[in-house]
Write a structure and sequence with these properties.
With 552 residues, this protein is an alpha+beta fold. The protein has helices at residues 2-41, 52-65, 67-71, 79-99, 102-107, 109-120, 123-128, 130-135, 144-168, 196-212, 218-250, 252-256, 258-289, 317-340, 353-356, 377-386, 422-428, 478-490, 509-525, 529-536, 543-548, and strands at residues 173-176, 179-182, 185-188, 344-345, 360-361, 364-366, 389-397, 402-410, 432-443, 446-457, 460-470, 473-475, 493-494, 497-503. Helix 10 (196-212) packs parallel to helix 13 (258-289). The chain is flat and about 85 Å long.
Length: 552
C-alpha cells in the first residue's frame, strides 16, 4: 500500500510543475506583454532597434530547447535568494514602466525571470538558462548617450575612409565632417551608415552562433568577437562608397531609393559571412595545432539534459504551489502598481510658444528673410517625436547683428532625452564640435547653467549657447535629468521640457557668447514673469551653486 501511495505522489509531480510554471508564466505575461506591444508599435520600427523581435524569439526558442531543465530533475529551490532577486526586478520594472524609462523596464526581465526560476527550481536550473537570459540583454535598448558617443566617431571614420578611397579613384571629393561633396552632390553620412546597427546585430548573431556550435575555447570566442568590429566597419565603408557612386552617376533618387535598403542588407549578409569564415579559419588552425586525443571523452548527447539519477524525493505540494502563486501574485501587483503610479501632465493652461516668444523686443526684431539651416531628415524625425511645439526665428538689431533663436517645447519628458544634447544634433548634420563646455549665463536675475560649443561645417562657424528646462528648473547632465524625472514622476506629475538654443555666425566664439548673453537678457526682460519661469525655471536660492558642479 505504501508503495502505491508513493507512486501516486510521484505521478503528480509533473502536473504540479506545470501548474507552477503556468502561474509564473501568467505573471510574466501580465508584466511584459503590454511592453512588447508598445515596442512593436514604436521603438522596434526604428532601424537601430529592429532586432528586438528576433532577440525575443531566439530567447523563447533557447528556453524551449532547455525545457527539460524546467520540467524534469530534482527540485532544489532557493526561496530567499529567489524572492530577493524577484522583488528587486519587480521594483525596477515598476519604476521603468510607470516613469516611461524603457531601459529600466526591459532590463527588469532578467532579475524577474531569474528570481522566478530560483524560486521554482533552484540554482542548477538557473545555470542551464544562463545563456538565454544573457542573450535577452540584446533586447535592452542602449541609452541615447551611448549611441551618440559611438555613432559620431564611427560616422567620422567611415566618411574619412570613403573620401580617401574616392580620391584614389580620381573623384574630386571634399569632406567636411561627415558631409561628402562631389560636384553638385552633397551627401551626409547618416547614423544608419555608421555601422552601429551592424555591430550590435553581428555581436548578437555571433554570440548565438558560438553558443550553438560549442563547446568553444576562449580563444575561439575572442577571435570571432574581435573580428566583428573591423568587419562591420569595412562593410559599412563599402556600403557608403557604393551609395555615393550610385548617387554621383545615377542621381539622388537612385541612391536613396530601393538600392539604399538593399545595399544595407547585402552588405550585412556579406559581413556575417566573413565572421563565419573567420571562425572556420580559426577552427581549422586549431584542429591542425591540437590533434584529437582519443583519451579525452566527448560530451555525450544525454549530457545536454538533466538526468533523474538518484532517488526522487516527495515534494510538498502546498509549499511549492504557494511559492508559485505568491510569485505570480507579486508580478500581478507590480503590473497594477506600474499603471497606478503612472504620472499625468501638470494641470494648467496650454502653452503657446508663438505668443510666449516675442517677435520684437528692445532693439531686436525678427528678420523673416533669413531662415535657419533645416535639420537633417533623421534629426527632424527625432525632434518631431519629442517636441510638440518648435519656434525658430532669426533676429536682427539696429547694428545689423543677427541672432538665431530656437525654442522647443515637449509636454512629456518621460522617455529618452537623446535629442536634447545639441552637440549630438549638430554632429548628426555634419558639424564638427569644438570647445564643448558648461558655464552660466546671467539674465532675469538668475544664473542659468548653460552648455556652450562651437559648431563648424565648411565655412560656417556657429557658436551655440543652449540649456534645457525640466519642470521648474534648468538641468545639466543625464543624472540630474533622471533625478528630476523620477522625483516629478513619482510625485504623479509628468515633467515638461523646454529646450532653448541661441546661436550666431562668428569665428570669434568668446565675443559671440557675450553677445548671446546680452540677447538672452534682452528677450527675457521683455517677457512676463510666468513666461520667464517657463524658459529658465523658477528662481531658487542656491540653484547656481548646485548647477555649477553638474556635468554631462
Amino acid at each position: 500500500m505504501s508503495t502505491v501511495l508513493e507512486q501516486r505522489g510521484l505521478d503528480g509531480a509533473p502536473e504540479r510543475r506545470r501548474r507552477s510554471w503556468l502561474a509564473a508564466g501568467a505573471g510574466l505575461a501580465l508584466l511584459f506583454v503590454p511592453t512588447y506591444v508598445e515596442l512593436a508599435r514604436g521603438l522596434w520600427r526604428d532601424d537601430a532597434y529592429a532586432q528586438g523581435p528576433i532577440v525575443l524569439a531566439v530567447f523563447g526558442w533557447l528556453a524551449w530547447r532547455d525545457r527539460a531543465a524546467l520540467a524534469g530533475g530534482i527540485d532544489a529551490p532557493s526561496p530567499v535568494a529567489g524572492a530577493a532577486i524577484l522583488l528587486a526586478g519587480l521594483l525596477l520594472y515598476v519604476v521603468g514602466r510607470s516613469q516611461g524609462i524603457g531601459p529600466f523596464e526591459l532590463a527588469a526581465e532578467l532579475p524577474v525571470i531569474a528570481g522566478a526560476v530560483l524560486l521554482l527550481r533552484g540554482p542548477a536550473t538557473l545555470r542551464r538558462l544562463a545563456f538565454p537570459l544573457a542573450f535577452l540583454l540584446f533586447l535592452v535598448p542602449l541609452p541615447g548617450f551611448v549611441l551618440d558617443g559611438m555613432t559620431g566617431p564611427l560616422k567620422s571614420f567611415v566618411s574619412a575612409v570613403v573620401a580617401q578611397v574616392l580620391q584614389l579613384m580620381g573623384y574630386p571629393v571634399t569632406r567636411s565632417g561627415v558631409v561628402l561633396s562631389i560636384g553638385q552632390h552633397q551627401m551626409l553620412v547618416a547614423d544608419a551608415c555608421s555601422g552601429m546597427n551592424s555591430l550590435y546585430s553581428l555581436f548578437a548573431l555571433a554570440i548565438l552562433y558560438l553558443h550553438l556550435t560549442g563547446p568553444s575555447s576562449r580563444g575561439r570566442w575572442a577571435g570571432v568577437l574581435a573580428s566583428i568590429v573591423p568587419i562591420a566597419i569595412a562593410a559599412n565603408v563599402l556600403r557608403v562608397l557604393v551609395l555615393v557612386l550610385v548617387t554621383v552617376h545615377y542621381g539622388e533618387a537612385a541612391g536613396q531609393g530601393f538600392l539604399h535598403g538593399a545595399a544595407g542588407m547585402v552588405v550585412f549578409a556579406a559581413a556575417l559571412g566573413l565572421v563565419l569564415a573567420v571562425d572556420r579559419l580559426w577552427q581549422g588552425r586549431a584542429s591542425r595545432s591540437v590533434p584529437d586525443d582519443p583519451t579525452v571523452p566527448r560530451r555525450a548527447a544525454h549530457d545536454a539534459h538533466p538526468t533523474r539519477s538518484g532517488s526522487p524525493r516527495r515534494e510538498s505540494t502546498r509549499t511549492a504551489m504557494a511559492i508559485a502563486y505568491g510569485a505570480a501574485l507579486a508580478m500581478a501587483c507590480a503590473a497594477i502598481a506600474a499603471v497606478a503610479l503612472r504620472p499625468v501632465p501638470a494641470a494648467g493652461p496650454a502653452l503657446d510658444l508663438d505668443r510666449l516668444v516675442p517677435v520684437r523686443f528692445g532693439d531686436w526684431r525678427e528678420d523673416p528673410e533669413l531662415a535657419q539651416v533645416a535639420p537633417a531628415p533623421e534629426v527632424q524625425a527625432s525632434l518631431d517625436r519629442i517636441y510638440r511645439q518648435v519656434v525658430s526665428r532669426t533676429y536682427v538689431n539696429g547694428a545689423g547683428e543677427r541672432m538665431m533663436l530656437t525654442v522647443a517645447y515637449g509636454g512629456d519628458q518621460s522617455d529618452a532625452l537623446k535629442a536634447h544634447r545639441q552637440e549630438a544634433c549638430y554632429s548628426a548634420q555634419g558639424f564638427r564640435i569644438h570647445g564643448l563646455s558648461h558655464g552660466t549665463l546671467d539674465a532675469a536675475g538668475r544664473s542659468i547653467p548653460v552648455t556652450r560649443m562651437l559648431a563648424v561645417r565648411g565655412a560656417r562657424s556657429e557658436p551655440v549657447t543652449y540649456w534645457f528646462t525640466m519642470g521648474d528648473r534648468v538641468v545639466l547632465g543625464r543624472a540630474e535629468r533622471l533625478a528630476v524625472q523620477l522625483r516629478s514622476g513619482l510625485a504623479g506629475i509628468v515633467p515638461d521640457g523646454m529646450l532653448v538654443r541661441v546661436s550666431s555666425l562668428s569665428r570669434d566664439a568668446a565675443t559671440a557668447y557675450a553677445a548671446q548673453q546680452g540677447f538672452v537678457a534682452a528677450i527675457l526682460a521683455s517677457m512676463p514673469a510666468d513666461g520667464v519661469s517657463r524658459l529658465v525655471g523658477a528662481p531658487t536660492v542656491g540653484r547656481a551653486a548646485t548647477h555649477a558642479g553638474a556635468r554631462s
